[in-house]
Amino acid sequence: LHDEIGNHLVVLKLYLGMIARELAKARPAQVREKLEEATGLVNQAIQSVRRLILDLGPVALEGVGLLPAVKLYARQCSARTAVNVHVKDQGLPPGLPAGHEAALYRLMQGALSNVLEHARARNVRVTFGSGAESTMAMTIEDDGVGFDTAVPRQAFGLAAMRDRVASLGGRFRVESRPAAGRGRSHGTRIDVELPTGKGRSR
Predict the structure, then answer these.
(1) Which of 16, 144, 155, 182 lies most in the core, judged by the most C-beta atoms within 10 Å?
(2) pTM > 0.70
(3) Which helix H or strand E contains 129, and what residues bound it?
(4) What are the helix (H) ranges across the chain?
(5) What is d(CA 181, CA 185) in angstroms, rounded to the nearest whole number?
């Protein structure tokens, strides 16, 4: 809010002050230019607000549930980017704890953010289903450029994702195949398993 919307609004305030001064000097050409720039800033602020509201996903989970919230986020992501995000439900177990739903939603957000920033992917598939030993599973796959998992990538936030899953007693695994020439398979896959009942994840 501070870095994005706050900055837009501060600059907008400055422009409006400049417009007022130009009006006082009766210089319509300069006024028109500043008004157009101020309008652009307003549009950016509106888009930022909408995006941030959308990113407050766990609040919406209480009203619609995990899958509808994820599908809505995927549609919005696809609409504002060049990446096609597909969500597939292979049978989530009923009655997931609220903490699990919030964690999965945040993990999905983080993974999609990484894809948009780093992967140069065209397609992403998010799959939910039931795993073995009373677990639920989420898989996120993209067809991006991939990366070498042996090289630390703190910018990807993978450590934070892994810690979030571990705090819930689950498993987190990342596989990636760097692009290595035309026709070679590449991309990144994230697998998450969380315990849902008395059984324990492996």
Answers:
(1) 144
(2) no
(3) strand 123-131
(4) 7-24, 28-55, 57-64, 66-80, 98-114, 158-167
(5) 9
Beta-sheet pairing, 123-131 with 84-89: parallel
Distance CA 131, CA 179 (A): 30
Burial of residue 67, with CB atoms counted within 10 A of its CB: 0-12 exposed, 13-18 middle, 19 or more buried = middle
Q: What are phi and psi of 38, to 5 degrees?
A: -65, -40
Cβ neighbours of 137 (radius 10 Å): 21
Contacts of residue 93, Cβ cutoff 8 Å, sequence gap at least 6: 130, 136, 196
The alpha carbons of the chain give a radius of gyration, in whole angstroms, of 22
Tens-digit pLDDT string for the chain (202 aa)? 555 676 677 778 788 878 877 777 777 777 778 888 888 888 787 777 766 765 665 666 767 889 998 998 899 889 888 899 999 999 888 888 888 998 999 899 889 988 988 888 999 999 999 877 688 999 999 999 998 877 655 445 788 899 999 999 999 999 998 876 555 568 999 999 999 874 443 3
Token pair in block for residue 70 = 């994820």
CA distance 116 to 178: 16
